[in-house]
Every structure is written in structure tokens, then in C-alpha cells.
Amino acid sequence: VQLQASGGGLVQAGGSLRLSCAASGRTFRSYAMGWFRQVPGKEREFVAGITRRGRTDYADSVRGRFTISRDNAKNTVSLQMNSLEPGDTAVYSCAVTITYSPDVFRSPKSYNYWGQGTQVTVSS
Questions:
Q1: How far apart are CA 93 and CA 114, in angstroms?
Q2: What is the pLDDT of residue 28?
Q3: Residue 41, SS3?
Q4: Integer Cα distance of 89 and 121 in angstroms
């Protein structure tokens, strides 16, 4: 599976960005997908995930502001980010987990393939 993330950039607090992740190589619709973010010196953090059936999960810090969705026909997963805060500044990466388990869905160790990441910077 190859993943290509895009859509990052610089935005003022309160603004919005939409990240996209294009997948190729295998049957996209069979896998759960996740978005993670990381800042220097900190561990990678779960942001949002979506199962192959469309069930979603969000970190408490972004619930109500971020929305994850997938388009199986286009092999893409998107992350709509609204009401952005300076604390959302990070490198965002998309990932695929081949073996979905709700108990470990939020753990980066559960994911098998990763995109290269896209920088999101929110200014105050």
C-alpha cells in the first residue's frame, strides 16, 4: 500500500484545512485508516480513524472540530479540520491498518503502512 498525504499549510487560529490521503496498491476499501500527528520531541498521537465500514473514532482533543471520511471509489480518506487551534500544529500522517481491532485502533503500532506526512501550522 502506498499513501500520499496532502493539504497541509499555514492557517490562522479559527480557520480550516482539509487533508487528503490517496491510497494505492491494494484493496483500499478492505482496510481501516487513521490520521496521526506528531510534533518534535513528542510521541505520535492518534487524531482520528475510520473503519472499512465507516465507523469513526476521534481523539478527545479534536472531537467536534475534525471530521474523517473516506471515498472508497476514489481510494481516499480525508480529514476536515475546523476551528483550528495553535495546539493542532504538527506533522499529520495517514496510515493503514490491515488487521482492525477496536482495542488498539488508536495505537500507531497497529498500523502497517504510513504516508510521508504533511505539515499543519496554526498561528495565533
A1: 7
A2: 78
A3: coil
A4: 5
